[in-house]
Automatic annotation (TrEMBL):
<feature type="domain" description="Allantoicase">
    <location>
        <begin position="185"/>
        <end position="317"/>
    </location>
</feature>
<dbReference type="GO" id="GO:0000256">
    <property type="term" value="P:allantoin catabolic process"/>
</dbReference>
<dbReference type="InterPro" id="IPR015908">
    <property type="entry name" value="Allantoicase_dom"/>
</dbReference>
<dbReference type="GO" id="GO:0004037">
    <property type="term" value="F:allantoicase activity"/>
</dbReference>
<dbReference type="Pfam" id="PF03561">
    <property type="entry name" value="Allantoicase"/>
</dbReference>
<dbReference type="InterPro" id="IPR008979">
    <property type="entry name" value="Galactose-bd-like_sf"/>
</dbReference>
<protein>
    <recommendedName>
        <fullName>Probable allantoicase</fullName>
        <ecNumber>3.5.3.4</ecNumber>
    </recommendedName>
</protein>
<dbReference type="InterPro" id="IPR005164">
    <property type="entry name" value="Allantoicase"/>
</dbReference>
<keyword id="KW-0378">Hydrolase</keyword>
<dbReference type="GO" id="GO:0006144">
    <property type="term" value="P:purine nucleobase metabolic process"/>
</dbReference>
<comment type="pathway">
    <text>Nitrogen metabolism; (S)-allantoin degradation; (S)-ureidoglycolate from allantoate (aminidohydrolase route): step 1/1.</text>
</comment>
<comment type="similarity">
    <text>Belongs to the allantoicase family.</text>
</comment>
<keyword id="KW-0659">Purine metabolism</keyword>
<feature type="domain" description="Allantoicase">
    <location>
        <begin position="17"/>
        <end position="166"/>
    </location>
</feature>
Amino acid sequence: MMGEFTGLPDLASRAFGGGVVHANDEFFAAADHLVLPAPPGHAPKTFDHKGQVYDGWETRRRREAGHDIAIIRLGAPGVVHGVNVDTAFFTGNYPPQASVEAAALPGYPGREELAAADWTELVPRSDLKGDSANLFPVADRRRWTHIRLRIFPDGGVARLRVHGEVVPDPALLPKTFDVAAAQYGATVVDCSNMFYGNPQRMLMPGLAQNMGDGWETSRRRDDGNDWVLVKLAAPAVLRFADLDTSHFKGNAPGGARLTGRDERTGSEEWIELLPRVALRPDTAHRFPLVKAPEVTHVRLDIFPDGGMARLRLLGRASRAYLHARMSG
């Protein structure tokens, strides 16, 4: 289905460090809005010296032939599965059409290097709807670092979501790093409950801002417990775990346990990494882990329910796996 890719991380998000490195015009509203992680908002009849205030990128009305562009540096380089050219709240001023291109560039290129880059079309010039999520699947499975959005001929776009798989450059990673970090390619593949908050938030960069910026389950009324299953950024030998209950005061789990397994072997056996430990409310805990072989997946069990702000798993990742991912 067309929108299946929207569950994948937004590689362009400011939450990963994505940014707009060039826009030819942003007269009415700055292009930086394109990569903000929060959903776009709107306050009708709110005017400044340039007109109605919009939470998005808006260019002036063209009086000559041409089109407008914005170039985005992906915060997490990777394989793009689809894009969302979101025109939320732009009704009489959205672009009738747009296209999306991509490039893979080393380092931190400037305007001249970007202009001379070899750009590949991911989404051909396509019609847009106003005040809508315009979803476009992408078939090309190469790794990209930059995206160029073209709008025809002008107008406003609220957000550009670039959904895909994170593929980090192993040359830029230390031997030991957080292999549960979404910015390096870790992802949640299953969980028991996410009534109040999606567990993928636990893997995001930085400290949680509030209770809404974490994983929280509903209250259990049985004898079970809640859990989440994380696919690591790479197979790894794990050394430490950070279990952060920050902001969760009356609803932190009473305890937690970590187990892992290597799904490359086909074994369904779970290896104990952290025996059940007590957790405290509103606390960043760090625990050393039991010595174990490489694992590809880790299961976090919380007892019996509650909220977790962040999960960090520090370990030594398989360099062979990372290099294979980088080379495609």
